[in-house]
Amino acid sequence: MYELFLDKKARLFFNLYRQLQRENRQSLEGIAKKLAISQWSVMRLIRQFQSMGLHLRLGIDILRQEGRLYLLTLEDFDERQLFFRLMEKSLVLQLLQLLWQHPNFTVADLAKAVFQSPPTIRRALREIQPLLAQYQLDIKLGQPPLLRGSEAEIRFFYLHLQFLTAGVEFQLNQQKILEEWQKAAIKRDRQGLRVKEDWFDRNQVQGMLSLPEYRFSGKGFDFLWQQLSGLETIWIPSLLEELLPKEWLRNQKDGGKEIYLEFYRLHLLAWLFSGNLALSLAPLPDRPQGNQLLEKLFHQHLPGYQLLLDKHPELPYCHELIFSKYQQQTQVHWLSFPLIE
Q: What are the residue boundaries of the Mga helix-turn-helix domain, all occurrences included (predicted)?
C-alpha cells in the first residue's frame, strides 16, 4: 500500500525488485509480462537505477544473463532503505509535506510550489487516496483544506509518514523526529486545527485498558505519542497482563513485560485510531490466522473486545505478528513502516 508514495518509474522498479525477491533468476520475458511493460522498458528501469549509483550505495543490483534476471544483494542490504531512496523525489511526498505545513494550500498553491501543472497535482493526489483511506482521511479537490478528516487521524498519519521518510535510522533519531512533528503540530494548533477532546470513546478505553481520565491538551497529545512510539514507558496496569498465559512469558526477558506492553500499545492504537494497524508491524513469510487461545481469552475477558474487533478486523493477525516476533526473540518496533504488499 505504501508503494503509492512512489512515482511511476520508482514503483515499477520496486515491483521488479519484489518479483525477483520472491523468485530469483526469472526470465526477462516473464518479468515484463508481470509488470505489464516491454522487455526494453524493464532493462531501461535497471539501467536508470544503476546510473543513479544506488546499487553501489545500497548493496543491491540486478543483472541480466542469458535472458534471465538475477537479483544480487549484500548481507546488510535493507529493503526499507531502498524504498526510502526511491521515494526521496516523490511528487506525492512533496505534496503531502506541503499540506502538513500549509493546510490551507489550494491546488494552485501546490502547483506553484512544486513547479507542476494543476492537472498533474490533481492526478497525484487522487492516486494517494486508497492509502489515505486506511487512516480515514480523504482528499477533496475543491476549497481548502484539501486533506480532510479528524485532526487526530491527520496527525497520526503524518507521524507515520515522518518515521517512514527517516529511513532505517528512524529508531536512532526517533526523539528528533517526534520533536519536528510536534513543532508542526503546534503550528497547526495556532491555525485553529486542534485535536478535539471527545475524539474517542473514553468509557470504552477506560474499561479495557484502565486509561486514567485526563484532558487532551496539546501537551497531553504529544505525551501520548511518546508512549505509543516507545520513548516514554507505559506504566498503566490493565487486564491484558493478567490474561497472558504465564508459560508464554516464562522465557521472555523481564517476565514478558515487553510483549505485554506491545499488546497494550496495539489495543490503545486500535481504540484511538482507524486504519489498518497491520501496516505498523513487520509481516511474516506466511500470513498467520491468529492464535485461537489468545483470541478466546480476549473475547471472554476483555470488555468491549468485540467492538474493537469490529473496528479492526486485522487484530488477530497483529496479535500473532507480535507474538511470533517475540518467539523469535526479535524486538518489535512500533511505527517503523515495514513494507506490506
A: 77-161
Which CATH number describes the domain made up of 90-149?
1.10.10
> What is the DSSP pairing of strand 68-73 with strand 60-65?
antiparallel
CATH class of residue range 2-86: mainly alpha
Query: 87 vs 206, which has greater pLDDT?
Result: 87
Give whole-number Cα distances, 298 to 12, 292, 305, in Å: 42, 10, 7
Which pLDDT does position 206 carry in this prediction? 73
Mean pLDDT of the chain: 79
Which distant-in-sequence residues (6+ apart) come within 8 Å of 294 by Cβ? 319, 323
Q: Where are the beta strands (DSSP E) in the chain?
A: 26-27, 60-65, 68-73, 138-139, 147-148
For residue 316, is pLDDT > 90?
no
**pLDDT more than 90, % of the chain:** 25
Q: Contact at 8 Å (CB) between 89 and 58?
A: no
Give the span between the Cα atoms of 221 and 212, in whole angstroms.
14
Domain ranges within the chain, ordered by starting residue: 2-86, 90-149, 202-327
Indicate the pTM of the whole model.
0.75
Strands, sheet with 26-27, edge to edge from the N-terminal-most edge strand: 26-27, 68-73, 60-65
